[in-house]
Amino acid sequence: MRRANWKMAAPTLVKCSKCGALMMPHRVCKNCGTYNKKEIVKTED
């Protein structure tokens, strides 16, 4: 059985443009709730 393609890949992370937290690209930031510099989800402060 060939298992050459069964390796795990580390997720790509980018910094949020508003708060600077690490997040996955093209997703809403879990820390501040923004996407593309717009507030999408209201978060508690």
Question: What brief labels describe this structure?
Answer:
two-stranded antiparallel sheet; mainly beta; 45 residues; elongated
Structure, described:
This protein is mainly β and about 45 residues long. The protein has one domain. It is built from no helices and 4 strands. The protein has strands at about 15, 20-25, 35, 40. It is elongated, with a radius of gyration of 15 Å. The relative contact order is 0.20. The model has no long low-confidence stretch (mean pLDDT about 90).
Sheet with most strands: strand arrangement: 1-2
Q: How many domains? A: 1
Number of strands: 4
Instruction: Tell me the distance between the termini.
Output: 52 Å
- Give me the strand/helix succession: EEEE
Largest sheet: 2 strands, antiparallel
Indicate the overall shape.
elongated
Total helical segments: 0
Rg, rounded, reads: 15 Å
Structural class assignment: mainly beta
Mean pLDDT across residues: 88
Low-confidence runs? none
The percentage of residues in β strands lies in: 15-25%
Helical content stands at under 10%
Could you outline the blueprint of secondary structure elements for this entry?
Elements: E1 14-15, E2 22-23, E3 34-35, E4 38-39
Antiparallel strand pairs: 1-2, 3-4
Q: What can be said about this structure in brief?
A:
The chain has 45 residues and is mainly β.
